[in-house]
């Protein structure tokens, strides 16, 4: 006979946290994980800005990066993204410590760490702002990203806040 060292209540609570609340076809945490990795993969392959704009609500968006004014429109995002492409040769995002919490029927609060690696162009007029060290054009920034994502006919990022990588996850609070 197999004995179980934990109570059935604890065991069922661990399994039940994955039970779909709105039917088996409802958006779940794996859909969001796939979306996050897809989002960054598009950056790494220098995708056109149309991909991103499809997932940002022009009427209800707030993207905040350290040291910059928040982006609140598609036009602001396009300027930011095209500058990224102009200033850098390549980039890669290593996502970790991913926390996802449903906050409403069609809304999720997500926080994770991204180790962002890349290379700023040697002729960049903004090199100092990209470099992690003044003696190299390669960079590595450890950042925390916190997103509010809604589910409509597609996943939409309403809020994206970037802070230092040592910032604790607000999802775990």
Count of beta strands = 5
Give the CATH topology.
Nuclear Transport Factor 2, Chain: A
How many structural domains are formed by the residues?
1
The first-to-last residue Cα distance is 40 Å
Mean pLDDT, to the nearest integer, reads: 91
**Strand arrangement, major sheet:** 1-5-4-3-2
Roughly what percent helix? Answer: 25-40%
Features:
173 residues; Nuclear Transport Factor 2, Chain: A; five-stranded mixed β-sheet; 5 helices
Helix and strand topology:
Elements: H1 8-16, H2 29-44, H3 49-53, E1 62-64, H4 74-87, E2 88-104, E3 107-120, H5 127-130, E4 138-151, E5 155-164
Parallel strand pairs: 1-5
Antiparallel strand pairs: 2-3, 3-4, 4-5
